[in-house]
TrEMBL record:
GO CC annotation terms, alphabetical: cytoplasm
The protein, known as: 3-methyl-2-oxobutanoate hydroxymethyltransferase
Species this protein is from: Fluviibacter phosphoraccumulans
Subcellular location: Cytoplasm
Cofactor: Mg(2+)
Catalytic residue list: 162
Family from the record: Belongs to the PanB family.
Length: 246
């Protein structure tokens, strides 16, 4: 999986073998120049989902629900998720653990597949006190596992694990039936995701540890994405240099 925000990169990513495209709210940082994902609007996400959907056929299109469009109630979440699905998404992603179980069950019971997202949840950056690795403190491993199992039980189809020690991500992956998608988590996850602009080495600002520059030594964006797909499938990305120690 890679993030994707437009039709051209959707076409190139599809041709390079990417299975799933995440229209991430990271677009607030990499496209819009904000320093968090919080200012991204529902209209922004609907627009970018429609752009991506016009650019590809095969990849699964997952849309992030932006901050403020799903936390308040399952009904509000459904109304906003339905707009993303109408724009061309095939699944929506919501950040949070057990507190999102009721909303996950509400959406999945009404025909909208849900991807969960736990660990470092960027929409909670001010609650977390920064973009910090999660799952290191006493009891965190059990808390994250309970969150993961509660979301699976509620009907989630997929679960993103962001910025946690590999042992924690492996522990969660082993205890779930649904696939896990890691970012700064573990090569043992079922799949991986990166922000496209990070792996092409054109994103602004300091790079998180989990980023690898796949453009190095390549002469096209397609070749860089193909190398990423091959390394993820082979289990050689992420390596120890992209992972967080316990
Ligand atoms: N370009 C981009 N890439 C991303 O991966 C990304 C975004 N934007 N925007 C939304 C969030 C923000 N993310 C981030 C941002 C920074 C770190 C970071 O610098 N983490 C520290 C961890 C420090 C620690 O706790 O040890 C690092 O050094 O990796 C991690 C995830 C992930 N998402
Ligand atoms: C980094 C991924 C998981 C994401 O949520 C995004 O791109 O917004
Ligand atoms: Mg996101």
């Amino acid at each position: 999986m890679l993030t994707c925000y437009d039709a051209t990169f959707a076409r190139v990513s599809e041709a390079s073998g990417v299975d799933a495209l995440l229209v991430g709210d990271s677009l607030g940082m990499v496209l819009q120049g904000h320093d968090s994902t919080l200012p991204v609007s529902q209209a922004d996400m609907v627009y970018h989902v429609a752009c991506v959907a016009r650019g590809c056929q095969r990849p699964l299109i997952i849309a992030d629900m932006p901050f403020g469009t799903y936390q308040e109630s399952p009904e509000l979440a459904f109304r906003n998720a339905a707009q993303l699905m109408a724009a061309g998404a095939q699944m929506v992603k919501i950040e949070g653990g057990r507190e999102m179980a009721t909303t996950t069950a509400f959406l999945t019971a009404r025909g909208i597949p849900v991807c969960g997202h736990i660990g470092l949840t960027p929409q909670s950056v001010f609650q977390l006190g920064g973009y910090r690795v999660q799952g290191r403190a006493d009891g965190d491993r059990e808390r994250l596992l309970t969150d993961a199992m509660t979301l699976e039980e509620a009907g989630a189809s997929l679960l993103v694990l962001e910025a946690m020690p590999a042992k924690v991500a492996d522990f969660i992956t082993e205890h779930l039936r649904i696939p896990t998608i890691g970012i700064g988590a573990s090569a043992g996850c079922s799949g991986q995701v990166l922000v496209l602009h990070d792996m092409l080495d054109i994103a602004p600002g300091k790079k998180p540890r989990f980023v690898k520059n796949f453009m190095a030594g390549k002469n096209s964006v397609g070749a860089a994405i193909t190398a990423y797909v091959e390394e993820v499938r082979a289990g050689t990305f992420p390596g120890p240099e992209q992972l967080y120690p316990e």
